[in-house]
Every structure is written in C-alpha cells, then in structure tokens.
Amino acid sequence: MAKTYRRSQWSHGLFILPYLSAFALLLVFPLFWGIWLSLHKVDLFGPGRFVGLANYVRVFADPVFLQALRNTIVFVIVSVPSLVALGLFLALALNRTTRATSFFRGLFFSSSVLSVTIVTLIWRFVFIPGDGLMSVIFKHLGAEPIHFLSTSGWSLFSIGVATVWWCLGLPMMLFLAALQQIPADLYEAAALDNASPWRVLTRITLPSIARTIMLVTIIQIVMQFQLFGQAQLMTNGGPNGTSRPLVMYIYEVGFVRWDIGKGAAASQILFLIILCAAMAQYVVSTRKTEN
Amino acid sequence: MSASIKISNVTKHYGALTVLDDISLAIQPGEFVVFLGPSGCGKSTLLRMIAGLEDVSAGTISVGDARVDTLPPGQRGVAMVFQSYALYPHMTVAQNMSFGLENIKMPKEEIKRRVKAAAETLEIGHLLERKPQKLSGGQRQRVAIGRAIVKEPKAFLFDEPLSNLDAALRGRTRLELAQLHARLGSTMIFVTHDQVEAMTLADRIVIMHDRRIEQIGTPMEVYQKPATRFVASFIGSPAMNFLPVTAVQNNPGGLAVTTVGIGTLQTAIHPQAGFSPRGATLGIRAEDIVVLPQGQTGTPLKAEVIERLGDRSLVYGVLEDGTKLTVEVDGRSALVIGDSLHISFDPATLHLFDESGQAHRTGGD
C-alpha cells in the first residue's frame, strides 16, 4: 500500500529544527541556567557553591524586594486594565474604513514603534518640574504644580501614563483585527432584533472578541510585569524606591551588587508570578466563555 | 398575522451605479412570493431594502398600511432568515430565539411560551440549550427560522436560506418551508437564484434581470407564457431552444415563421402591431418538440450528446445545416449518439420574441 502524504515522519522535524535550536539555546537553556544559578551562591568571578533555597529566603526577607513586588503588582493592576479598556475603546471608535480612521489608526500605533528612550524623553518633557508641560498647565490654571517624577505615588503614576501611551498601539490593532472578523450579518440580525447599541456591544461585539480580550490581557500582564526601561529612565525607581519595579530590583542585585544568585532567585519568582497571573487569567476567561 | 407589502417606484443607487431601477410590486397578505434572478440582478438588495438593511434611494415601501422605508429595521415588523443564518455564536439556541423579544422588553413568561411553541413547530425542542457550532447545517437553518417565527412578524424575508444545504436536505427543507407557510399563513418573500425552489415554493414569482422586474406571475405562467426572451431562457431546464427568424408571413391561422435550420413553421401567434422579423427569434422548449415514430418524415436531427436523466433523456442534436437543437425524449428511448431522428413542432407551443426580447403571444393572450 502506498504511503500517504500525511503520514508523520521524523524527518519532517527538520523543518522546525532551526527554530527549535534557537528556542532551546536562547530560551530553554537560560531558563534552566537561571534556576541553577538561583540555587547557588555565585558572582561573576568564580564558580558558585550550592546553597539550596537560601537565595529565595534572602529575597523574601529583603524589604526592598517586597516594596518592588508591591510596586509592580500595583502597576500591573492599574496599567493592564487601562491598556485593555483604552485599546478596545480606540478600536471600536476606529473600526470603520474612512480616511480619517486610517489616519488615526496610524497615529495611535505610531507611539509603539518608538524606543523606550524616546518615549521617556517625551514624557519627561511633560512631567518634569519647572518647564514641563504639566507644570506650565498647572501654573496657567493658578494651581500649585505637582512634582510628578519625584513625589511618592505620582512617580509610579507618571510611569504608568507613559507606558499606556507607548504600549497602546498593539492592543488597539489586535482588537481592530478581531472586530473585523465579526460577520456583518450578526449586526444586521441584531438590527432586525431591535437591539440597542449597548446591547449590541455587550451581547454581540464583546462576546465575539472574548478570546482576543483574553489574549491582549495575557500579553499585557506578561509585558507590564517586566517594566524596567521607563522606570529606570524617568524616576530611577525613586523617590525612596516607590517606583522601583521588580526587574529593576533584579538588575540592581545582579548587575550592580553582583549578587547573581539572589538576582536569579528574584527572576525565578518573577517568572512564576507572571506564569500564575497569565494562567489565572486564562482559566477565568475560559471558564467564563464556556459558561 | 400577515400583511401586504407594497413597493412603489423603488430605485437604488450606489454612487453612480444603479442596481435597482423603478421597481413597483404589490404583495398580498399571506402570499409566498419568490424573487428569482441571476447573481447581481438586485434581488437580494430589494429584499434588504424591505428589511431596512439598505437605504432606499427613491420610492417608498409599505408593510400593511404603514410606510416603513424610513423606519429602522427592528421597527418594520418583518423578520429575516439570512443565507448564512447569522446565528449569534456565543448564545444558545433558546437565547438566539429570545434575544429579539428581550430587546423589546417582552415579559419573560411570554418569551418562554413563544420559544417553546416555535421549537415544537420546528422540532428543535431538544436543541434549545445547544450553541450554534454544535448544530448541523439543517438544524441551524431551523433555528434561524425559529428566531424569525417567535417575533410573529407581519412578513418573513428569506435570503437564499437553502443555498448552504446539501441537495437532499435542500429538497426536504423546501417542502417543510411550504408546509410552514401553509400552517402560518404569513406573507413570505424568498430570494433565490434556483428556479426549482422558485417554481415549487412560490404563489407568484418575480423574475428580475438587469435592475428591473422582467415578469411577475404564477410559476406556470412564467414557464408557459414567458413575457421576455430572458424569462424564457432563465426558466426551464434545459434552456429553451432559440432559432433566429429570417422571414414571416401573416396567415389567417397565425404567423408563418421562417427560421434558420428548420425552415418555415406555421404558428398560432398573432403578433402585436409593428412586429418586425428583424432580430426576432423563435423559442421552442425541448419537451414541446415532437419526436416522430420511425417511418414518419419530419425535420431530421442527428444526436450528438444524450443525457439520460432516468424518466427522460435529453438529446443535444444538430440539424442538417448545423443548427443545434435540444430535444426531450422518453427515458426508455434506445437512441444512441449518431442516430438520426425526425421531429416536428406543435404550433401552439411556439414562442416568438422580437428584437427587444418582448414575447408576442398566441392569439388572445
């Protein structure tokens, strides 16, 4: 009997070998090496010595870590829903084919192609005390200017605003792509069914793009937990560590104080947090969709 | 509840492109009307204009006594079954059916009663808690009809609802639709490009072509008395034979027509004043051509292709001068390719079309 073309053969695996090699070398290997490092007392100048979970104990006993963890969680809790909601709002508003909407899609997406250096530079111009845009506005209104980048609470808020502005393009585009997949005749059926715009949004549009909402949320959770550049360049984690995120903590421990083992342990904790948050979001959304 | 529908001088433009030109039509309450025509003739656009999914460029549409062309779709009192069914994928069958009623704040008990009644009518009671992706094509189709029924509309609009079903299911659903119409007695408009659907379902067929209505009539009227050459060619399978007319002569019994291929035929047609043979054609349906028994002499035809359909066979033949002609013969005929047969014509079954395609009828019609 002749072999069918669809029969699986090991040699077919050669097609994915280039990618698998890069994946193993750049992702799988560093992940396990990171775990290995987190179990050792190690610096850059010599081989490590096995210390078990001591690095993890040291990390959890470090108040700076706990503060960075709290900052990061607050940042994620505020920035991710903002990105999802604003991205969805923009996508709904721009889900038409006119010249104006094409222009605005391009405009809102353009911030995404900028580097973090440019983004933070722009927002420093906005938030910096004295000649910054916000200061000028406050002065014009006769109000006392807020020192956004050097006041506890406001510094993390400022980083959040810059981040949302920078990252908004991707959620908007993903939502637009999802909205354009919804068959037009569903909306026509809803029009014949006397559905109000609110009912159309809540009963037709949002359920139809539920998977994309979940995807965008997970992508944003993963991305925003890794906040670093904006905080580094806008506030340097200050004042008093109130805007220091976890990645900056890992950077400082690992590459400023050269405590590689402790830095690696903090990295594994961040990895687990991101994994749990993304999985929790996935499970909750899947259960909701099934119901 | 069923209502009349009146379409008066309706026109539809998309920019400079006119897709419907001055359409007028009156549909009686409880009537089953089929819009039939080739792709792009504007039949679906006309249906969508009645539904309110397309604006009317000029003219008016009334449902019952009320003008509706300025109302939003939900307030026109019509329900539509889409070609793709357009079921809400994340809702169950019951939710799909009750969505429209919830939107008009109907009491829950009444919604339940209507959904249950419609589900019983369509025998989909066991599917109410399923989602559309768990249903077969035929079941989805029933749910789409159920969603229309629960609204108790003044008229049902069907936009090619059978085209996504396989042949066997299409035939069965066609029959069920006819039964549903008989049971509900509602006004129904059905759009299709399938003449079998049109012939079997319609009280009246509206044949559309090139932005206009070509003919409105009962299925047998449009088949037996096509008003134009287009209708004659579109209705009937195989298509009517058309032979170019070269000369005519007025006789007391009707016009004697000379055609390419056959020669002169005496017809029972009395053309209207001003009829000119220039550009005219004679139409003959395959089943109206008489095949003479062996031994009798008529017009000889040589069989080139024979299509055996079971109860009948279609002979695609060629006349002595090379003119092609299709003839229907009995299914038990032993004809084979290359055989010659002799044919003749019944004057009462001939159709004459002038240069513009208008039909000229047999005396009195």
Summarize, please:
The complex is a heterodimer of chains A (291) and B (365). Chain A has helices spanning 17-38, 54-61, 63-93, 99-110, 116-127, 133-140, 154-167, 169-179, 184-192, 197-208, 210-225, 229-234, 246-256, 260-290; strands spanning 40-43, 46-50. Chain A is mainly α and 291 residues long.
Structure commentary:
The complex is a heterodimer of chains A (291) and B (365). Chain A has 291 residues and is mainly α. Chain A has a single domain (42-290), classed as MetI-like fold (Orthogonal Bundle). Helices cover 70% and strands 3% of the residues of chain A. Chain A has helices spanning 17-38, 54-61, 63-93, 99-110, 116-127, 133-140, 154-167, 169-179, 184-192, 197-208, 210-225, 229-234, 246-256, 260-290, and strands spanning 40-43, 46-50. The radius of gyration of chain A is 24 Å and the shape is globular. The model of chain A has no long low-confidence stretch (mean pLDDT 89). By secondary structure, chain B is an alpha+beta fold. Chain B has eight helices and 21 strands. In chain B, β17 and β18 form a beta hairpin. The radius of gyration of chain B is 25 Å and the shape is elongated. The mean pLDDT of chain B is 91. The chains are: A mainly alpha (291), B alpha+beta (365). At the A-B interface, α9 and α10 of A face β6 and α2 of B.
Topology (elements, then pairings):
The complex is a heterodimer of chains A (291) and B (365).
Chain A: H1 17-38, E1 40-43, E2 46-50, H2 54-61, H3 63-93, H4 99-110, H5 116-127, H6 133-140, H7 154-167, H8 169-179, H9 184-192, H10 197-208, H11 210-225, H12 229-234, H13 246-256, H14 260-290
Antiparallel strand pairs in A: 1-2
Chain B: E1 5-14, E2 17-27, E3 32-36, H1 43-51, E4 58-63, E5 66-67, E6 78-81, H2 93-103, H3 108-122, H4 137-149, E7 155-159, H5 167-184, E8 187-192, H6 195-201, E9 204-209, E10 212-217, H7 219-224, H8 229-234, E11 241-251, E12 254-259, E13 263-266, E14 281-284, E15 289-291, E16 299-308, E17 312-319, E18 324-330, E19 340-345, E20 351-353, E21 359-360
Parallel strand pairs in B: 3-8, 3-9, 6-7, 7-8
Antiparallel strand pairs in B: 1-2, 1-4, 4-5, 9-10, 11-12, 11-14, 12-13, 14-20, 15-19, 16-17, 16-19, 17-18, 20-21
